[in-house]
Each structure stands twice: as structure tokens, then as C-alpha cells.
Design goal:
Pfam families: KH_dom-like, MMR_HSR1. With 447 residues, this protein is α/β, with parallel strands linked by helices.
Length: 447
């Protein structure tokens, strides 16, 4: 994706159609590179695959789907289901038809499903390689989806005009991007399915705004809610539970991950909801890593605390020491979202995390601090050499990023020591810290 692409929620454009109409070829044409597998055999694309795409300075997610046959059975039926999921969760749809074949019964059946979805649809007449076939393509008006956009995905004919039209029907990104000030603080509620994320949002809102069910995976799309708490307005984003690795997920789970990842990117603070009565799972750790890598502030909420007995508390303490050692800086709160117990602890924890996330240390104060710790605890000697920190500065806040100029590469253990002392000295509660080291180049001897 282009670095100049706008930030915020990235809209999703799904490419659907019968088998072997050239969907993957069109996807490759839009991307400007060969990503999707293309063969003259129907059904090569069995799964739906998403790609980061950009056109006219705007970013969007392009989803290639398997061939859609309404009368499918077996594996073809599963492909059909995934295509239907793609349509239900996309912001807009490109419906690709083979202009050399014309309208088929299967095409008309797909049109009925598309109409029922209510999503904006562009009709794409593919394999129009010359003006003669362009005239034939206008018979596709009879599908009732408006003017067909004639393209040759193989040769690139008409693809630019198609993308211009697609941008017109895709939703605009929010005006307030993650780096802009003035809007409500953005809080993403993340976690595995069925840990109580929607129940928490409903308690915070004071009413049932989100469907809550004991069936895991009830929430699919992120839900934004403006909620007044503690004398200020917050924008809470309830996200679908992330259950599997994105490459292992299928159907709704795949799109749940896609949408949750964009929600994390949009947020300033993520509230990771864990079920206090269950062991910390591998999936919890994966979500935690996603939040850390995105550089977001973090609050950890142990929900369902009413189900945690003395024995479970003992084992939970051991799990926290073992699994959450890398995020000891994150505020932890114990709550019961179902009853509202200790929900009032959320806002103070969010305030602390945001304050730490936005903390900035002056260059003078930072170098005075670095001078002290280097004098008290110099770097260990390695291979007869002892690297020293010469100078440092904070190059960014939200999240905090520090750059250290040194005489040599620092051990990871020493970097962790510097980070720990930074937290002791300046706070940085609730935020990851990144330390970049730039070693001084050796001077060449002049002859």
C-alpha cells in the first residue's frame, strides 16, 4: 500500500463472479503485480484472498473470491458460501461477467443475491479486447445493474476508468485520522470470541447497543459507539473476536480478523478483554502482539471476575507472571461486564494509558538520565569492547520512540534495562516503547 495512503478504516472492495470469468486476472491488473493465481481452469481460486491496493491516492482492500456458482455442491458450495460472506462484509462489489459468453442463468442468480445484499455494485464486462466485442458487451444492460464497465483484464483496457468508478462508490475515510487531534479518543475493545467484549460496551453505554449471545462470533463488523464517560466523550469500537491466525481463518473469521486489524490501527488505546475464569490462551497472546506491534496504548481487563475463585486466582497470578511479563507496564483491571462490577475503573485506566502513550521527555532531561544510568550501570564488555551511549533523543510520542547514538551495538538485555529505567523515571504507563540504536561509524585512518 502506498505510504501516502490515507489513514483510518480501509474500505473493502470484493470481486465476485462465475468461475473462469477472469476475476484473478482483474485483481492482478488492479494491483499492478501478479499476486493472484491465474489459470484457464475454473475454480483455481478456492479461498477468498485480500490484498492491499491503492488508486488515486486512496487505499482500499481488494478481496478476490472463488468462482460463484449458485447451484454448487461440495467444495464448490463452500466457495460459494465464502463469496457470499465477501459480499455481506464488503463496502462495494465488482461483479465480473465474461462478455464473450454473455448472460448465463448463473449470472442472473448472482444478480439476485447482489440485489438482496443492498451493497453498491459495479458490473464489469471482462474480456472485451476490441471495439467489436465492446458492442456485444452492451447486451449486459439486461442484467439490470446499470451500464457495464468494459475492460480487458488481460491487456489492461478500461481498468483505470473502472477504478475511478469504484472509488466513487467506496466510502470515504473518516475525516479525523489517527494522528489528528480534536475528535473523541478512539478505544478498540479486542479479544477472543465470547470473552464479553459486547457486554462491556453495553455496560459502558448504559443500554444494549450491541447484540450479545453466548455463541462465539456474534459480532462480525466493528461497531463504533460514542459514549460519555467521566465527563468526556469516547469513541468505542467493539470488534469481532479473533480466534485463529489470519491464514488459517475461513469465512466470517477471516473478515473478523481483517476488520479487527483495521480497528486496532484506528485506535489510540486497545482494551484487551480476557476471560478471568479461563487460562490465558495462545490467541490472547497473538492479539497482544498485534496491539504492541501497532504501537497502541494498552489496558488489560480480566472479565467474568465473579466466576474466579481462590484456586483460579492462584493459577491466574502464575499465568500473568509467565505470559504477561512483556506488558507489565499495561494497567490491569478486574471487572464483571455482565453486572457492571468495577466498570468505573475503565476510565481511570484509559486516562493513565493515554497519558503514558503521549508522554514526551525533553532532550536535556533524557540525556541527564542517560548519563546517570551509564555511570551507574555501564554496558558489559563484549569481545574486548564496551559500547557506550553518547546521546539520545525522543523522536516521537504516541507511541514513544527513542533514538540512542552509541559507540557500538547494544545487547538486547541492555536495551531492556534502559527501557525499564525509562519507565521507572518517566512513567510511560500503558504504552509500548521503541528504542532505536544508531552506532557511530568507525573513522578510517588517514594516511
Amino acid at each position: 500500500m502506498s505510504e501516502a495512503a490515507p489513514t483510518g478504516v480501509v474500505p473493502v472492495l470484493a470481486v465476485v463472479g462465475r468461475p473462469n470469468v477472469g476475476k484473478s486476472t482483474l485483481v492482478n491488473r488492479i494491483l499492478g503485480r501478479r499476486e493472484a493465481v491465474v489459470e484457464d481452469i475454473p475454480g483455481v481460486t478456492r479461498d477468498r484472498v485480500s490484498y492491499d491496493a491503492e488508486w488515486g491516492g486512496r487505499a482500499f482492500t481488494l478481496v478476490d473470491t472463488g468462482g460463484w456458482d449458485p447451484d454448487a455442491r461440495g467444495m464448490a458450495e463452500r466457495i460459494k458460501v465464502q463469496a457470499e460472506v465477501a459480499v455481506s462484509l464488503a463496502d462495494a462489489v465488482l461483479f465480473v461477467v465474461d462478455a464473450t459468453v454473455g448472460i448465463t442463468d448463473a449470472d442472473e442468480a448472482v444478480v439476485r443475491v447482489l440485489r438482496k445484499s443492498g451493497k453498491p455494485v459495479l458490473l464489469v464486462a471482462n474480456k472485451v479486447d476490441d471495439e467489436r466485442r465492446e458492442a456485444e458487451a452492451y447486451g449486459l444492460w439486461n442484467l439490470g445493474l446499470g451500464e457495464p464497465h468494459v475492460v480487458s483484464a488481460l491487456h489492461g483496457r478500461g481498468s483505470g476508468d473502472l477504478l475511478d468508478a469504484a472509488l466513487e462508490i467506496l466510502p470515504e475515510p473518516p475525516e479525523a485520522g489517527p494522528g489528528e487531534l480534536g475528535g473523541p479518543r478512539r478505544i478498540a475493545i479486542v479479544g477472543r470470541p465470547n470473552v464479553g467484549k459486547s457486554s462491556l460496551l453495553n455496560q459502558l453505554a448504559g443500554e444494549e447497543r450491541v447484540v450479545v449471545d453466548n455463541v462465539a462470533g456474534t459480532t462480525v463488523d466493528p461497531v463504533d459507539e460514542l459514549i460519555d464517560l467521566g465527563g468526556q466523550t469516547w469513541r468505542f469500537i467493539d470488534t469481532a473476536g479473533i480466534r485463529k491466525r489470519v491464514k488459517e481463518a475461513s469465512g466470517h473469521e477471516y473478515y473478523a480478523w481483517l476488520r479487527t486489524s483495521t480497528a486496532i490501527e484506528r485506535a489510540e488505546v486497545c482494551v484487551l478483554v480476557l476471560a478471568g475464569n479461563e487460562s490465558i490462551a495462545e490467541q490472547d497472546m497473538r492479539i497482544l502482539q498485534e496491539v504492541r506491534e501497532a504501537g497502541k496504548a494498552l489496558v488489560i481487563a480480566f472479565n467474568k471476575w465473579d466466576l474466579v475463585d481462590a484456586e483460579r486466582r492462584y493459577y491466574l497470578d502464575r499465568e500473568i507472571e509467565r505470559d504477561l511479563v512483556q506488558v507489565q507496564w499495561a494497567p490491569r483491571i478486574n471487572i464483571t461486564a455482565r453486572t457492571g462490577w468495577h466498570i468505573d475503573r475503565i476510565v481511570p485506566a484509559l486516562d493513565r494509558a493515554i497519558e503514558g502513550w503521549e508522554t514526551r521527555v525533553s532532550t536535556g532531561a533524557l540525556n541527564a538520565f542517560l548519563g546517570r544510568i551509564v555511570a551507574e550501570h555501564p554496558h558489559p564488555v563484549r569481545g574486548g569492547k564496551q559500547p557506550r551511549i553518547l546521546f539520545g533523543s525522543q523522536v516521537q510520542s504516541a507511541p514513544p520512540v527513542f533514538k540512542l547514538f552509541t559507540t557500538g551495538r547494544l545487547d538486547q538485555g541492555y536495551e531492556r534495562f534502559v527501557e525499564r529505567r525509562l519507565r521507572e523515571e518517566f512513567g510511560f504507563v500503558g504504552t509500548p516503547i521503541e528504542i532505536k540504536v544508531q552506532a557511530r561509524e568507525k573513522r578510517k585512518n588517514r594516511t
